[in-house]
Design goal:
elongated
Length: 325
């Protein structure tokens, strides 16, 4: 057994311009030779980098034959530190390191527990769990800025579940959409499991409710990694749209839409208060868009009275009842 005391420890990576400062390192260390290998335990790490960790952290290492297992428990860790550590760990993979480098996550993971088992230097099993608090991202790749998401996660090599929610989610502008979403209530629950080489992904709920939109989605996706086109989709949604005449400026992906289609949709609904409908996607991915009816990709809509303009130059039709699929 031993005790290690360090003050003002600085870890620097000049290539990535990363500097991690540990104000104080006060660690109780236990090492023990067992019949099948070494066991190493470190407990009560703190106070360590106050902006990164809280005062509780425990690490254990167990070696047995060709297998080595690391276990980590942390009371709280800030997400910006996770991004920095990811850069350090991925230096041998420049393409992944660059992706991680562009991340700027904020928030924290509370009650984090993680483990990893290696055999002959290869990762053979892992697990992680924790509670996400006030996650936000200032914008990554073509994904818009996101703020105020909390939730929890638990995963291992073969299965996992993640649950996210926000009573006041904000989503900024992005490559896809010209305006950010209005403040929204958001609930998301997703579980996945690996069976016979396939990934079974169950979307228990994806609910979004704001000034313009009430969207409720659920379903199952079966992914086939050996041939993605063999994947199976079975998703459905119910939606209600409010103040439909204002929707176009928020929800149309203008950067990927043909200009003539965008122009037509933008002028089609002159005034409309409410619209409801369903969305269904059922079938094999390789058969999409199901021209021979091997599957279904369908949007149904029904509206109350609306003022519409069928095409540019046409007069406005008042009180039209719009239905379609």
């Amino acid at each position: 057994h031993g005790v290690m005391l360090l003050d003002q420890v600085s870890i620097t990576n000049t290539a990535l311009k990363i500097n991690l400062l540990l104000n104080q390192f006060h660690e109780n260390i236990l090492w023990q030779w067992q019949e099948k290998g070494w066991r190493l335990v470190m407990e009560h790490l703190g106070p360590l980098a106050p902006k990164a960790f809280d005062e509780h952290m425990a690490v254990s290492y167990n070696e047995e034959g060709d297998q080595a297992t690391w276990q980590l428990a942390m009371g709280q860790v800030n997400l910006d530190l996770v991004s920095e550590l990811g850069e350090l760990l991925l230096q041998q993979h420049p393409e992944w390191s660059q992706m991680v480098d562009s991340l700027n996550p904020q928030g924290a993971i509370n009650g984090m527990q993680a483990s990893a088992t290696l055999e002959d230097g290869h990762l053979i099993d892992y697990s992680a769990s924790g509670a996400i608090q006030n996650f936000s991202e200032s914008g990554w790749q073509k994904i818009p800025p996101i703020q105020s998401i909390s939730g929890s996660f638990a995963l291992n090599k073969n299965r996992g579940i993640v649950s996210l929610n926000s009573p006041a989610l904000t989503v900024g502008t992005s490559y896809w959409f010209p305006r950010g979403l209005p403040t929204s209530a958001f609930d998301f629950n997703l579980a996945w499991e690996q069976r016979a080489g396939h990934w079974y992904i169950k979307l228990n709920q994806l609910n979004l409710n704001n000034l313009h939109l009430n969207w409720q989605t659920s379903g199952v996706v079966i992914l086939v990694p050996s041939n993605w086109r063999k994947s199976v989709m079975h998703l459905s949604a119910n939606y209600q749209l409010r103040q439909v005449d204002e929707l176009m400026s928020y929800y149309l992906p203008v950067h990927v839409m043909p200009q003539d289609l965008y122009n037509w949709l933008s002028q089609f609904i002159v005034k409309q208060d409410n619209l409801s409908g369903q969305w269904v996607w059922r079938g094999n991915l390789e058969d999409f868009p199901y021209e021979k009816e091997q599957g279904v990709f369908q949007i149904r809509l029904m509206s109350a009275q609306a003022d519409i303009r069928p095409d540019e130059g046409w007069p406005v039709l008042h009180g039209a009842i719009v239905t379609g699929k």
